[in-house]
Amino acid sequence: MKPALMSAVALAFLAGCASQDMPRSSSPVSKEHTETCKATTKAEIAALFQDWNNALQSGDPQQVVNLYADGSILLPTVSNQPRLSAVEKADYFEHFMQNGPSGSIDLSSIELGCNMAVDAGLYSFAFARTDAVVRGRYSFSYRWDGTKWQITSHHSSRMPE
After folding, report:
1. What is the tens place of the pLDDT at every residue in 107-150?
2. What is the CATH number of the domain that holds 128?
3. pTM of the model
4. Residues 6+ apart with CB under 8 A from 16
5. Distance (Å, whole) CA 2 – CA 36
6. Total structural domains in the chain?
7. Cβ pair 118, 141 in contact under 8 A
8. What is the strand order of the sheet 149-158 is part of?
């Protein structure tokens, strides 16, 4: 065999071997994909805010924190500190709850995906102890964990009026 032909055969062989070891993540259909998507509706996702608001009105920060997934992030309205751990979230809600907040949705846009959803929009909080009303922007992202929806990220900021 000629050296050039031998080189070409060797390269083709090596390329074939290399492609056998490479993960095929670019393939549009994976044989290993076994995730089942939870059927949901925008109404079901919208109701998750009321669950969160009810927990907020309970006066127990842990009830609110229990709605967040492990590894979730809270970017709160009245704190410059991102809250990553359950302890940090509980600390934030303990202080936030002191004035008796009650939230309501003013505008909502919900997007649904496979075992995930995003609810973003505008909300208002009325504070029972101070009679103040604060309007803000929000986004909640949710993930279905197989038994319940959990908050994976929550961003809230006051309106820049």
Report:
1. 999 999 999 999 999 999 999 999 999 999 999 999 999 999 99
2. 3.10.450.50
3. 0.78
4. none
5. 55
6. 1
7. yes
8. 68-75, 149-158, 133-144, 116-127, 101-113
